[in-house]
Amino acid sequence: MASSNVYADLPNGRKIPMLGLGTWNSKQGLLKTAVMSAIDVGYRHIDCAYDYQNYGEVGEGIRAKIAEGTVKREDIFYTDKLWCTFHHPDDVEPACRHTIEKTGLEYIDLWLMHWPMAFKRGDVQYPTDDKGNYFCEDIDYTETWKAMEKVYEKGLVRAIGVSNLPLEWLQRVLDVSKVPIANLQVELHPYLTQVELVEFCKSKGITVTAYSPLGSPNSPDLDTNRSVPIDDPVVVEMAKKKGKTPAQILIRFQMQRGINVVPKSTNATRIAENFESYNFELTEGEMAELLSLNKNMRFVKYHESFNSPLHPFSPENMKK
């Protein structure tokens, strides 16, 4: 079993475990057991979101381990995310309260704005036209952020942050923020290292969390002809040489960059293996070799909402 968790400091003095269990795209019915297995192994950070539509099951798993006496609520760091249909300032607090009620966790440790673009208000998660494009609304994400700050001030969440923001967009939030941005969660792996963005966050005291650290091999946006980092020959050979799994190499790569990481799995064996990433180190040469694999290749794009002027990765915005 791996040793104890390593933590990163949030700007408000709270701490976030550097390794967490991701829950995106996980099969319904498996997550309660997966969360319980993760907590038994030693995980204390669970990452979820309204968009995943499994936060109720995740909450069940956490509450079960609390009821058993394995952990207390304050031992668990629970991250959740505000969905795009709730960006209107009037919808932000009700959305937060809904998540708290659904998970049964009393409060959220870290609440992130999942994406900067706003979808049509209402209970339809993906409001689309007959061509499959999302109906988007003209709500600036800085106004949504200000509403999130009010939720923070009420104590419903212990820290707030953002996700999927490029550097210049992140600066716009910094320019209006009264509450420190605790965390930026973005796609990070050897094919998308985002060095400038990561260094900018460190300079501003913003912690960074890597999602899809293995390259998101199951992403619906993935071109089937593309390779993914977990299958890269460099990664596979490095894992073989060190007696580790490719996933452990990729997780450790982020941790040694000072980045939190939330690999997803519902497989108890892989959950335990991933936690062992705390227990070894990559050499400077190995880190440099992994960094050199960068291709600025993004796997998660949400192309259905490219029509929004506030989609950070739309072809139009990527030209700027």
Give a structural overview:
With 320 residues, the chain is of the alpha/beta class. The chain has eleven helices and twelve strands. It starts with 6 loop residues before the first strand and ends with a helix.
Helix content: 25-40%
Uncertain stretches of 5 or more adjacent residues: none
Report the sheet with the most strands, covering strand number, pairing sense and barrel closure: 8 strands, parallel
Strand order of the largest sheet: 3-4-5-6-9-10-11-12
Q: What's the shape?
A: globular
What's the count of strands?
12
**Overall pLDDT metric:** 94
SS element count, helices: 11
Q: Please give the alpha-carbon distance between the first and last residues.
A: 47 Å
Radius of gyration: 19 Å
Which series of helices and strands comes N to C? EEEHEHEHEEEHEHEHEHHEHHH
Given helix and strand content, the structural type is alpha/beta
- Our estimate of the beta-strand percent is 5-15%
Write the layout of secondary structure elements.
Elements: E1 7-9, E2 15-17, E3 21-22, H1 31-41, E4 45-47, H2 55-68, E5 77-82, H3 89-103, E6 110-113, E7 118-119, E8 136-137, H4 141-153, E9 160-163, H5 167-176, E10 183-187, H6 195-203, E11 207-211, H7 233-242, H8 246-256, E12 260-261, H9 268-275, H10 284-291, H11 315-318
Parallel strand pairs: 3-4, 4-5, 5-6, 6-9, 9-10, 10-11, 11-12
Antiparallel strand pairs: 1-2, 7-8
